[in-house]
Amino acid sequence: MRHFRPLLFLALAAWMSVGPTPLQAQDGHLSIMTGASTGTYIQFGRDLDKLMQGCGQGLEVVESAGSLENFLAVRQRPNTQFGIVQSDVLEYMQTFAGGDPAVARAITGVRIAFPLYEEEVHVLARRDIAGLDDLTGKRVAIGVENSGTFLTASLILSLTGTEPAETLLVAPADALPQLKAGQIDAFFYVAGAPASLYAEGEIDPERFHLLPIQDPTLQAVYSPATLAGGTYPFQPDPIDLVAVKAVLMTYEYNPGRNSYHRASCRGVSDLASLILTRIDTLRAEGHPKWQSVDLTDIPPGWEVSTCVNRGIDPGYQANCTAPAPAQSVPDSQANEAYRRNICAVIGC
After folding, report:
1. What is the pTM of this model?
2. Could you list the residue ranges that cross the membrane (predicted)?
């Protein structure tokens, strides 16, 4: 885990210096930390925003570096009630919390909102690279700091004993053109399939392919997964990978503390109620990964938010108001005459 611990502690040191969740935040403003514009997290965020808008509310969808930033933002960033985080990040945060006060402080008050879906570990590489072992001595992009891709890639390289000649802190969206240009040999990307980066990236199957991940050590740590053939235009055949669960996180707001906590708890409860009661709508109209969401699959070692439990209580009534209808503006006399004359000639 040579990459994981230094990044984690540097990030925690920076964030812990800011202090706990600010109390001067704007009451009633809700936001969710997601990921890059080409990822699955941001599409899930937009689906949830659409759900809230149908209830007369809104949810600001914020792009981010990924899982670690999202986790810490839930605790630290003003008006940030939600963040999507990978379960391996949660697991290792819990593991290190027992021996490091900074990590223990960082996870204080952070709670589960809902378990979401499995996201596959994609490693796109040159066609002559057959598997993870062949990344030894190569140039490999592993994501940017504070991203789940960075953390998962670092763990996988450590667990398999793979030692690239160079690991580069490059976001997947930037890594793809570098791979095409021959500047790197492969790059990691943890995202729920189908990830738009691959679906729309015009990837030449004669030059590049996704590496199979069948290492027994990794399959013991992560969930085995299979990408169906044709998931991406360049990938006609099924491929075995591993996956990690995405989890929607929130904060343990105390409605009796102040108006910000009260408004945030109400917003968390409202979204929880909507997710539970309109999950069929999300599965029918949202990202395809909603179809595999198992709301009962809670990661071990973490508690569900009190405000979430309040929202999914059968007796809870979400604060919903129908969006205001568009107001029609009466025509002026000039506009009315225009419409009348147009209709007289061409029909209306």
Report:
1. 0.79
2. none
Read off the tokens for 270.
């409202």
DSSP string, 39-92: SHHHHHHHHHHHHHHTTT---EEE--S-HHHHHHHHHHSTT--EEEEEHHHHHH
Residue 161 confidence (pLDDT) above 70? yes
Residues 13 and 97 in one domain: yes
CA distances (Å), 283 to each of 48, 72, 111, 197, in order?
Answer: 12, 29, 24, 22
* Residue 51 belongs to domain spanning: 7-118+245-312
62-92 pLDDT, tens digit per residue, is: 999 888 889 989 988 989 999 999 988 888 7
CA triplet 42, 95, 45: central angle to 5 degrees?
10
List pLDDT tens digits, range 173-192: 999 999 999 999 999 999 99
Reduced to 3 states (helix: H, G, I; strand: E, B; else coil), residue 96 is: helix
d(CA 236, CA 9): 41
Q: What is the chain's mean pLDDT, rounded?
A: 87
Query: Is 137 within a domain?
Result: yes
Residue 22 has pLDDT above 90, yes or no: no
Torsional class of 66: left (φ above 0), alpha (ψ -120 to 50), beta (otherwise) = left
Identify the CA nearest to 33 among candidates 23, 12, 48, 20. 48
Q: What pLDDT does residue 8 have?
A: 52
254 and 165 in a common domain:
no
CB 118 within 8 A of CB 243: yes
Q: Are residues 99 and 195 in the same domain?
A: no
Q: How many domains does the chain have?
A: 2
What b/e string do you get for 179-197 counting C-beta neighbours within 10 Å, with b at 16 or more? beeeebbbbbbbbbbbbbb
Q: What share of the chain is helix, strand, coil (3-state, %, to 5)?
A: 40, 20, 40
Residue keyed to tokens 């991940």: 213
Do both 131 and 114 map to the same domain? no
Residue with tokens 């990794």: 218
